[in-house]
Backbone:
C-alpha cells in the first residue's frame, strides 16, 4: 500500500465548531482557524463567511471551479489582502493588522500560481533568500566579514543543501534557477517557502505543468514534508487525483462561499460539489 493511499484513509473527527481535523490533531490547538472571513472589492463580495479549521499536521485541500475565490483566500491568509470582515488565527495568534512580512514571520509561507523565482540567481541563493529570517550576525560582522559572518554563511549553505535534498536537488545548487525545467522550478519554490520555517505551508497549484510521474513524486514529497517538519499544509489544486490522494480534509469553494467540507470520499459523492463542477443535468433542470 502506498503512502498516498494510507493518507486518504486518515480518520477525521468532528470538532464542536462543526469542523473536522485528523484524529491525531484532536487534542491539539488548530494550526489555522478562520472565522467569518470575507473581503469585498468595490461592493462585490469576492469571499464571504469563510470558516475553516486546519489541524496542526493536516494536509488540507481547497478546491472549486475557476474564479471561485481560492487564490483570494490564500491572499487573505497571507495578509496580501486585508479582510473586510472576519479573522485569521494562526497557531492561536490573531493576525489582525499584520502585513505579509509579519504573517510570514509568524509562520505562514506560500507558493504562487505563477512561479516567482529569481531566475538569474542560483538555486541555492533562491533558497537562502527564504532563510533571511534566520540570519544571526549583525551589520558590523557582515561589513567586516568577522568570524560570526562566516559561521552563519556556512550554516546557511548547509541548511540550503539540506532543504534541496528533499527533492534531490542539492546537485543543482549552482545552477541558475531560470534555466531549470518547469517542474524543477515548482519544486524549488516549495523549498524556498520551507526555508522560512513555516508552521502552515500554502501551495497554490503545485502540480501545474507537471507530468503524471512528477505529480506522483510531488504527492509523496508533500506527505514527507508534513511528516518531517510536523507542519500543516493547505493546497489549491485542479488535479483531483492529487487532491483526493493526499488531502485529509477538503473545502470546496464556489462564488466565494464554502459549499462543502469533508473527507475525499464525502466530497466526491456530494451532489452540490458535482453540480458546481459539472452543472445540473438536463433532467434535473426540467
Residues:
Amino acid at each position: 500500500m502506498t503512502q498516498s493511499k494510507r493518507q486518504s484513509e486518515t480518520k477525521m473527527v468532528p470538532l464542536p465548531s462543526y469542523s473536522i481535523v485528523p484524529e491525531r490533531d484532536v487534542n491539539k490547538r488548530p494550526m489555522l482557524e478562520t472565522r467569518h472571513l470575507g473581503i469585498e472589492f468595490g461592493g462585490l463580495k469576492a469571499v464571504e463567511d469563510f470558516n475553516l479549521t486546519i489541524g496542526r499536521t493536516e494536509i488540507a485541500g481547497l478546491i472549486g471551479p475557476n474564479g471561485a475565490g481560492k487564490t483570494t483566500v490564500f491572499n487573505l491568509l497571507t495578509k496580501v489582502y486585508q479582510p473586510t470582515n472576519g479573522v485569521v488565527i494562526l497557531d492561536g495568534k490573531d493576525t489582525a493588522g499584520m502585513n505579509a512580512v509579519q504573517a510570514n514571520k509568524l509562520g505562514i509561507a506560500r507558493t504562487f500560481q505563477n512561479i516567482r523565482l529569481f531566475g538569474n540567481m542560483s538555486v541555492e541563493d533562491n533558497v537562502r533568500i527564504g532563510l533571511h529570517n534566520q540570519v544571526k550576525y549583525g551589520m558590523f560582522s557582515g561589513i567586516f566579514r568577522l568570524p560570526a559572518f562566516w559561521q552563519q554563511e556556512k550554516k546557511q549553505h548547509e541548511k540550503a543543501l539540506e532543504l534541496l535534498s528533499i527533492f534531490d536537488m542539492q546537485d543543482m545548487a549552482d545552477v541558475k534557477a531560470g534555466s531549470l525545467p518547469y517542474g524543477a522550478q515548482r519544486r524549488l519554490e516549495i523549498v524556498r517557502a520551507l526555508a522560512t520555517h513555516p508552521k502552515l505551508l500554502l501551495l497554490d497549484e503545485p502540480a501545474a505543468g507537471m507530468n503524471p510521474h512528477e505529480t506522483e513524486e510531488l504527492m509523496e514529497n508533500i506527505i514527507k514534508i508534513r511528516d518531517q517538519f510536523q507542519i500543516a499544509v493547505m493546497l489549491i489544486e485542479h488535479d483531483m487525483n492529487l487532491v483526493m490522494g493526499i488531502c485529509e480534509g477538503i473545502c470546496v469553494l464556489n462564488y466565494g462561499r464554502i459549499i462543502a467540507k469533508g473527507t475525499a470520499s464525502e466530497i466526491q459523492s456530494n451532489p452540490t460539489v458535482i453540480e458546481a463542477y459539472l452543472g445540473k443535468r438536463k433532467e434535473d433542470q426540467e
The first helix runs from residue 3 to 8. The chain has a mean pLDDT of 88.
